Amino acid sequence: MKGLLTLNRLSTDKIQDIIDEAVRFKNGKTVSYSGKTMATLFFENSTRTQYSFQMAMIKLGITPVSFNANASSLAKGESLYDTVKTFEALGVDGVIIRHSKDGYYRDLESVQIPVFNAGDGASDHPTQTLLDLMTIYEEFGRFDGLKVCIVGDIKHSRVAHGNAEIMKRLGMSVSVAGPDIWLDDTAPQTTVDKAIAECDVINLLRVQFERHKDSLAFDEAKYHALYGMTSDRAERMKEGAIIIHPAPINRGIEIADEVAECPKSRILKQMQNGVFVRMAVLSMVLEGQL
């Protein structure tokens, strides 16, 4: 299947190629795919990923087509496969899909147009990983030897699972921290306070209250005190270290309001880089380079 489904199928050299191409777009490279059309099929809510893909398409001259799941034939029982085949028949040149099912793209093997994974279940979010890597690469100029700690709900996070796998392949030392009930075997466990003293990158995750509201063993203030990036913790971070977060952020929970845009935060830069990463991915697929 054409497109970008997971980074696990790509070599580290190819991952670096995508980052390098994204940097070139950020530095002013232009191409045009006028006449091309792609559809964004989001079965879960999204702001940054959906509109970042749309902005990337506009910058590349691709016409974006938005899909409203709530007003579609899904309500009549249409499957994901038939929805995608419908857009294929309508003549779009690719589809960008976010879906709650892990590995949803395995049901789309016969689809002939490129499929771009904008997040599947709790498994993977390849373009988020790429924009995180681009942000880190711009900061440090390398990956090998860097230490990163992913903090929060590891078990249910596609960002955590996708990032940890690729970061380790690129030579980064990865650890995780957070409430015991949210940790798994993704990476060795540590504490937040140990991580901020040792790590080059603190990768915060959003607390997914919509998943856990009835089963949380702590309230928002307690989470912030135990695991959040407070002002005190930010001040104690390793010199030169940075904070990243896939967003949306819960201010005052996983990150203090005054820390969210502090000099160590790269959260807004990640959003900016997301456009260029997605431009690179879309362009490289259309050019047969992915």
Percent strand equals: 5-15%
Overall average residue pLDDT: 92
CATH first level of the largest domain: Alpha Beta
Q: Which radius of gyration do the C-alpha atoms yield? A: 19 Å
- The overall strand count is 9
| 3D shape | globular
* Overall SS class: alpha/beta
Secondary-structure map with pairings?
Blueprint (H helix, E strand, L loop, with lengths): L2 E2 L7 H15 L10 E6 L5 H12 L3 E5 L12 H11 L4 E5 L15 E6 L5 H15 L6 E5 L6 H12 L3 E5 L14 H7 L2 E4 L4 H4 L7 H8 L3 H5 L6 E3 L22 H20 L4
Parallel strand pairs: 1-5, 2-3, 2-4, 4-5, 6-7, 6-8, 8-9
Description:
By secondary structure, the protein is α/β, with parallel strands linked by helices. It folds into 2 domains: 3-124 and 271-286, 3-Layer(aba) Sandwich (Rossmann fold); 126-267, Aspartate/ornithine carbamoyltransferase (Rossmann fold, 3-Layer(aba) Sandwich), CATH 3.40.50. The protein has helices at residues 12-26, 48-59, 80-90, 126-140, 158-169, 192-198, 209-212, 220-227, 231-235, 267-286, and strands spanning 3-4, 37-42, 63-67, 95-99, 115-120, 147-151, 173-177, 201-204, 242-244. Helix 5 (158-169) links the parallel strand 6 (147-151) and strand 7. Helix 1 crosses helix 4, helix 2 packs across helix 10 and helix 4 (126-140) crosses helix 10 (267-286). The longest helix is centred in the last third of the chain and has 20 residues, at 267-286. The radius of gyration is 19 Å and the shape is globular. The model has no long low-confidence stretch (mean pLDDT 92).
